[in-house]
Amino acid sequence: MLKGKCVLVGITGGIAAYKICELIRMYKKNGANVKVVCTPNAMNFVTKLTLQNLSQNEVYVQEFDVKDWKPEHISLADEADIMVIAPATANTISKIAQGIADNLLTSIACAFSKKMIIAPAMNCNMWNNPTIQENLRILESRGIECLPPDSGFLACGYLGKGRLCSIEKIYNETVEALRYSQKLAGKKVVITSGGTIEDIDPVRYISNYSSGKMGFALANVAKDMGAEVVLITTKPFEAPYKIVKVKSALDMQNAVEDEFETSDLVIMAAAVADYRVKNQSEQKMKKGVNDILTLELVQNPDILKGLCEKKTHQLVVGFCAESENLLENAKEKIAKKGCDYLIANDISRNDIGFSSDDNEVTILEKSGKIEKLEKASKKVIARKILEYIYE
Predict the structure, then answer these.
(1) Known catalytic residue: 165?
(2) In the chain, is it the N or the C terminus that has fewer CB atoms within a 10 Å radius of its CB?
């Protein structure tokens, strides 16, 4: 299953380091070329000779132990198809999150632009530390996959969450990630996210409750599947692909049109304001003597419909957020817009949709076919959407 793939295994200084010997054996048994890089502290828990015999390759530890002209942290990053750091200590997780590259492993992680999986293992109190959790969120926002530790009796004597997850889980996630990394290879995917902002004056604006989370999930999954991703968003976001920050509906329209001709798939997940203020004030508007302020609004361009009218080879996917009559409104919208697929969201529920980490959607095809995706995390929903479109 891994024939022809190069797996770069990073081992840090935790007691669970000895378990990675079995992981390396599994990778090798299934055809992978395994390269191992260790932090100096990892050598306190597992020997270099053992890792060399299992991987049948040199084991890398020291950052400046360069045997040819190639800097190791760059050449190893370039050679590998995937990087797996297990066990990942709190120290290494925090360094990677903050861009600290003070040893060979963290330098490689800083230079690595492909799929990365980390499997943390540490004391339960360290795992629950707010700083560690924040650093994990930073890594996940950049597309790095975290396999949470298991609960149980820890080597330090505590009982709690912090044990390295099973070796089988790490192996299976590696295989799945490599399989995914080919599904959209050669495709350019453009995704919009967040709610647009329409200024009233320099202080006030009209917007909506969209958090951008669904668009972020779609972009990260598309990247994992090997696509060239362009995310056009109104929300701040960090990721290892092209991000275009926009504000208003007109900004978003211009950005999408700039990328449209060379795209293969466009997913309009953003909540674009239907109207903008006709005469935006250049100065802050002062409170008047009347209790009522009247704003004159003009309709924004229909970006989705405009794309559908001029598409050639592209697949165009729209989103609709409905508070009632979900299917009826969605059917009307896909017919009106002319998109290939429409993803319908029910925003009347508090447990899904805007700002939630979960979602439940219905996919409509222009052929009339309908597929419901039951409630799951937005990452899972994103994966199922992209699988549905391309499988």
Answers:
(1) no
(2) C
